[in-house]
Design goal:
The structure is a single chain. Helices cover 8% and strands 36% of the residues. With 200 residues, it is mainly beta. The protein has a single domain (5-196), classed as SOS response associated peptidase-like (hypothetical protein yedk fold, Alpha-Beta Complex), CATH 3.90.1680. Strands 2, 4, 5, 6, 7, 10, 11 and 12 form an eight-stranded mixed sheet that branches. Strands 3-1-8-9-13 form a five-stranded antiparallel sheet, with no helix packed on it. The chain is globular, with a radius of gyration of 16 Å.
């Protein structure tokens, strides 16, 4: 699962990194505690790459209100292509969600310790995501795709976000043909570093 993350990269640096046109309504950065239902930065490739804001919490078309069903902040890689809520977005509306790090907690209830998880090379993360517009006003919403954890991550949690490597960004975004399903797997064992996250 991925339920909290951090983003400290400036908007112009993100736009340059992803070769994307930045929108005018981007969320505030730095934000070291991005929470579900917050507005998040998202890279899409409709009519060229763009960096825009979306609600973190995917809303299926049949929801009558944002709270009409479960809060869908994550989509499981194993079922994202077949689950009615996600399958059309998985086929046609994939995105990248930038992050500096994400958090997981360990320990007993009431005394849980947060762990900050980032790339071992210091580069930003790009989570695999799916998105769609919801409601009469076309509210853009998104979810992070997760998969089973690799061995290192499994010490903290049995799931982890799918992290898309830069060379695979065109494939995930639908710019490089078919085959994006092959990207929905755990990161390499040495791809991430873990440190005490402090207060989150």
């Amino acid at each position: 699962m991925c339920g909290r993350f951090a983003l400290t990269l400036p908007d112009d640096a993100m736009a340059q990194l992803f070769a994307a046109r930045p929108g005018n309504d981007l969320p505030r950065v730095p934000n070291r505690n991005v929470c579900p239902t917050d507005s998040v930065h998202v890279v899409t490739a409709e009519g060229g790459r763009s960096l825009s804001a979306m609600r973190w919490g995917f809303l299926p078309a049949w929801y009558k209100a944002p709270n009409a069903g479960p809060l869908l902040i994550n989509a499981r890689a194993e079922t994202v292509a077949t689950k009615p809520a996600f399958r059309e977005a998985c086929r046609a509306r994939r995105c990248l969600i930038p992050a500096t790090a994400f958090y997981e907690w360990t320990g007993e209830k009431g005394a849980k310790q947060p762990w900050r998880i980032a790339r071992s090379d210091g580069a930003p993360l790009a989570f695999a995501g799916i998105w769609q517009r919801w409601g009469p006003e076309g509210l853009p919403t998104c979810a992070i795709v997760t998969c089973g954890a690799n061995e290192v991550m499994a010490r903290l949690h049995h799931r982890m976000p799918v992290i898309v490597e830069p060379g695979d960004w065109p494939l995930w975004l639908g710019e490089a043909g078919h085959g994006a399903a092959t990207l929905m797997q755990a990161a390499a064992e040495d791809a991430l570093v873990f440190e005490d996250g402090g207060p989150v």
